[in-house]
Known about the structure:
Elements: H1 2-21, E1 23-29, E2 32-39, E3 44-48, H2 59-66, E4 70-75, H3 91-106, E5 112-117, H4 119-131, E6 135-141, H5 164-179, H6 188-197, H7 207-210, H8 214-219, E7 226-231, H9 241-251, E8 256-260, H10 267-270, H11 272-280
Parallel strand pairs: 3-4, 3-5, 5-6, 6-7, 7-8
Antiparallel strand pairs: 1-2, 2-4
Helix pairs in contact: 1-6, 2-11, 3-4, 5-6
Amino acid sequence: MEAETGVEDAASAAIERIDGACEHAWTPDGEHRIRWRLIGEGRPLVLLHGGYGSWMHWLKAMEALAGHRRVACPDMPGFAQSGGRKPPYDPPRIAVAVAEGLGHLFGTATPLGVAGFSFGGTVAGHLARALAGRARSLALIGSGGLGSARPEIVMRSRARGMSAREILEVHRHNLAALMFKDPARIDALALEIQRRNTETRPTIVTRRYSRTPVLAEILREVPCPVHAIWGDGDATVGPFIESRLSVLRQGAPDARATIVPDCGHWAMYEQPEAVVTALMS
């Protein structure tokens, strides 16, 4: 038990170290506010997390990216520390709020890069369109919103009366089913991020948007280069990568695609160096 506690403490310390290295900012969103973490110097790069997520989805890539860019990583409206909103809350509305927040942080003329993970990819497409000529690049990591076939993923739910250990095993199962190619890479840090991210329920059902072709439709109006990145073992793609690419290129015919070897859905965690290299290429 003491050994387990020590590992959990180390995971929490790793999160707090990155959090402490960031500058923190709040931007207005109507009667609410958006929480931002900022780190690094250079052209701003906006990082958007996935469903049931927070800024911590990007934790293992933030410092490396900060060596090249001014990283701006929000908890999107309706999620984590930017939560508390009443539904409905949809990707276009989130994108508008994030765009307004970026105006407060960087002004309304600064060029920006945009990257989104999973559900955040759908929001990133809306954001790049809203930013118009200010968006210089759009990266989509394991993105939803491409409307093609996907495998069935069996997730587990927590139940009333579960012990802490039983809840931990639910998190481990769900990370293995959805997020990782190699379950052996599910470490204490990944489990702690998952625990924190699922403590609060988002005010948006992200699956509703991830399984539609809305992103491909939006990409027709995005004026910047598009780069799609998937792990070769992404559970949301399975054997359907060719159909995913086909839908992507209906919206962005010149889009680049990178398949990261030995990697699942949560690519920035399982293979952070490869994702950073792809984003900076």
